[in-house]
């Protein structure tokens, strides 16, 4: 399924003093300017009003009058972040900590800015400095945990999230972030518990429901997942990730009309190749109860958008009289012909597309290896398969041994190129493989042949 990782980060928000609150009832002309503090206060006023250019000007004047005004550097740095000038923001935060080496908020916001730049090592260093100055800085623990999680350092991320929760047990975002880690570790009960807590603390944040819905869907608890996606879409009807996920869940509980409706809307808004591959991965074959072949309708909708030059041709509509419940999945809905002429037409309409069949096999092959479904994985190969001097039985034994030693297996394929010559085919792609024991990226080639109208892999070259 389509899972988008959401990490809740905190950026420092100014806490206005009583005198600053009075500014909101004044005009800029009422605020005196001349001393460094007066310029600083007027800069705060303009910043709150959204006049960032004037705020920068006043903070700059405060610094001109008092070159050691650390708060003016700090506040000007925050405005530069809002304006997207990250380099200048870092320069101002750096000046603030030079003047005041115990300025934990300046280290914290500089860390946030380094993280925006992708400088994660410096971000971790600054979060750590902020924590050293203020050991109760829950937000710094949270954001440092986010960096560790993005690096794949899940144990260190858990440690930071646990500390943030210890400091502030009502920190909803940290529970959600820790839930993401537990989900990555396949500890789904703990993930659910953390998302439940996040929702209890902040029931109005739709992102928490989206993540809990993803976990429910991973568990196969599809109706609960749908309930959570409903909550998300009630707040934001254009949340495409939740539309795709709810559509997949609806297909799983055999509510095919609702599934097609969700996919149609999501595809029209944002045709996602990732969602297309997720659908094929999770629905490799049409369900027997899918009489109208909704699966095919969804694939056609995707093809129209993401592969217009290769989209499957849709034949003219044929009235369905008595659809066959035992018909195999085909490119269009099957019909019960009333005479031989119609039967001949049907054979033409239901002819499969070889390239699409090969693509489906490759996706099924990847999905079965990721999930540990050895039976399906073996079924992707021909009985005379040979690779690295091994026959099929030896190959499956070898792969089983590899899988038993591996955790968190992830495979991504890009630039899939398929060539077909009658009953032989070749699929070449870039494979990015990641597990607890191996990380690798390279070009892989699968050589296939058609056996009893099914494509099978008979050689694998890396």
Automatic annotation (TrEMBL):
| Record keyword Repeat present | yes
Span of domain Cds6 C-terminal: 360-460
- On whether Transcription regulation is a keyword of this UniProt record, the answer is no
Q: Which keywords appear in this protein's UniProt record, sorted alphabetically?
A: Repeat, TPR repeat
Q: Which SUPFAM superfamilies match?
A: NTF2-like, TPR-like
InterPro entries assigned to the protein according to its UniProt record, in alphabetical order? Cds6_C, NTF2-like_dom_sf, TPR-like_helical_dom_sf, TPR_rpt, Ycf3
Write down a Pfam family by its short name: TPR_8
Name this polypeptide is given: Cds6 C-terminal domain-containing protein
Organism for this UniProt entry: hydrocarbon metagenome
